[in-house]
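Support request, please re-run this one:
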Amino acid sequence: MELRTQSLKQKTLELEKHIELLNATRAELFTKEKLAVLGELTAGIAHEINNPAAVILGHIDLLQAELGENSCVQSEIDTVIEQVYRIRAIINNLLQYSRPGQVIDQLQPLDINAVVQDTLALVRYALDKKGIRVERHYGEITSAEGNRQQVQQVLVNLILNAANAMTSQGSIWITTAPWITEDGEEGVQIQVRDEGSGMIEAVRQRIFEPFYTTRENGNGLGLSISRSLAQRYGGNITVESELGKGSLFTVYLRHKARLNQEDEETMRQLLSGLGVA
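Re-run finished. Output below.
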């Protein structure tokens, strides 16, 4: 009788595990359906954005030639050029996000502390305008392998989201620290914490879904794209939040990137567990 009870418990645990895996896979498939729509939208508007971007760059070149290389506004010109290229990169990242198997990114070792510092320069104006202070705590960390523009895009999204979560002046804390992966490899974690309004649990569980947003003028893509970029190289983004006390987002990046092989292994385990494969 005892053996039968133990066997039943074991089978129940296995069934619960398979159900959990099935739910996770179903949620992933639901996300991929949204990504298919995103892919169609992005492909349709990409050239509409790239065309005016090319016009802007052309006129900036003419302006730069007219003013000369030692112009007093050279730094502003460089910023405009950099941001136009960033617009192009965002469009490209949207295409990569919706069709991840079709694009191979160029990876390089990144000094994460330097990347964070450079990113803060990009968002400084927006933060100063709202009177938001940034407290930085840089740890002694190893490099992380990734795409610099994509990592900056992730950080810009998280920092601006943190700023938007606060209705008045306040602080954002950015911390870098070592991270050890589950398989014992080295990595880096970047934490962005705000003292904003926080989230209820129902919102927290959906915050990374494509097109899900709680902001009136939001598009629901920033966090979804950010997590996708991190996961593509074997990392992740997690969130902790408490209503009325703020949120903490943590970005995990590997020292040596491990390209995500989509959901083939997850699906194989699911089918195997259900006796289909």
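The helical segments are 2-67, 74-98, 112-130, 148-164, 201-206, 222-232, 264-273. The longest helix spans residues 2-67.
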